[in-house]
Design a protein that fits this description.
The protein is α/β, with parallel strands linked by helices. It contains 14 helices and twelve strands. A seven-stranded mixed sheet has the order 2-8-7-6-5-3-4, with helices on both faces. A three-stranded antiparallel sheet has the order 9-12-11. Strands 1-10 form a two-stranded parallel sheet. Helix 8 links the parallel strand 5 and strand 6. Helix 5 (104-116) packs across helix 6 (132-139), helix 5 (104-116) crosses helix 10 (259-272) and helix 12 (293-314) packs parallel to helix 14 (385-399). It is globular and about 60 Å long. The chain binds pyridoxal-5'-phosphate.
Amino acid sequence: MGRMPTRVSARIGAISESATLAVDAKAKALKAAGRPVIGFGAGEPDFPTPGYIVEAAQRACAEPRFHKYTPAAGLPELRAAIAAKTARDSGYHVEPAQVLVTNGGKQAVYQTFATLLDPGDEVLVPAPYWTTYPEAIALAGGVPVVVPTDESTGYLASVEQLEAACTARTKLLVFVSPSNPTGAVYPPAQVKAIGEWAAAKGIWVVTDEIYEHLVYGDAKFSSIPVQAPEIADRCVVLNGVAKTYAMTGWRVGWMIGPKDVIKAAANYQSHATSNVANVSQMAALAAVSGDLSAVAEMRAAFDRRRKTIVRMLNEIPGVECPEPLGAFYAYPSVKGVLGKEIRGKRPQTSSELAALILEEAEVAVVPGEAFGTDGYFRLSYAMSDADLEEGVSRIGKLLSEAR
Ligand SMILES: Cc1ncc(COP(=O)(O)O)c(C=O)c1O
């Protein structure tokens, strides 16, 4: 007897909806239905794209050459500008041929795994991880191997933990600093140690630098192939304009890597999507060739909100929030509240607690299960100061009823 064909392939059928987008959509739907929901789910700046970037796009709209197909790997002037921007911002020197322009950072993530992984290859993924990595790895035939971290180390993975998770099948490590969802930033010495370790083991590193400009206080962003140049030949850097320039909707990201890998990924992209929309590429060109004053302004606002949210969360009994040093997320543990009774219910998991908070306090947070760790919430603080304070007070009021 042959196997019954399924309507949807096993590969695609195994993917779950992005939990962060789902929470955001649910909060927006409740809001549209007239309920005063405050959403901490969104992973995007609450600012509009700076005017000079929008104007560059408007000019590009009127240029007939941008109404046509352009090279699949990206406009040559944008690839060159990304190489120059990378040297300026992280000190990593690459040629334009090492840059591939993608439809947002997300396509860069998926395409990188598709380009590097063979079936059964293992990928070290420190948790809490961004919800897309394991799905993209599995789609590419790889096997995510989760390396758990917690608030006791500020969510940083050590070389010893990575070494312990390594097997003969380990092909690569996913390294993200500043981190989504925790906001953790690895100190330069630890970035160097991890890069040197990976190089010595012969493991590839895929490093996601999309939050490079969002670091606070004394924290310093550092790029792994700069700290450990010996990894450069087995390193792919992922980045994009979304978070730095408030351009999430424009869909421009990129991969930077060794030329053979970039060429292979570009071949793949030439069949999958072809060039990124030219108008968006021209907007991205204005963004990466301009200065960083817009992101400096956003950073100052995020930093103020970061301090408020961490203080307010830590005032709630049973909630513990280490100080996030980067990105725009707080990742508190709510383990001290689980199992207690709140309004006749006894939530046992962070998912159940998040559902109760949405129902009773009309506040949306993303439960830690979405990032591989039960017992936590992710709250984005890329929102107005007033909503932030109101939202966290509502959570505090509800959780103070826990018995
Ligand atoms: C860590 C990380 N990498 C990549 C991305 C992809 O961003 P985009 O596809 O909007 O460029 C995101 C967005 O949430 C992210 O948080």
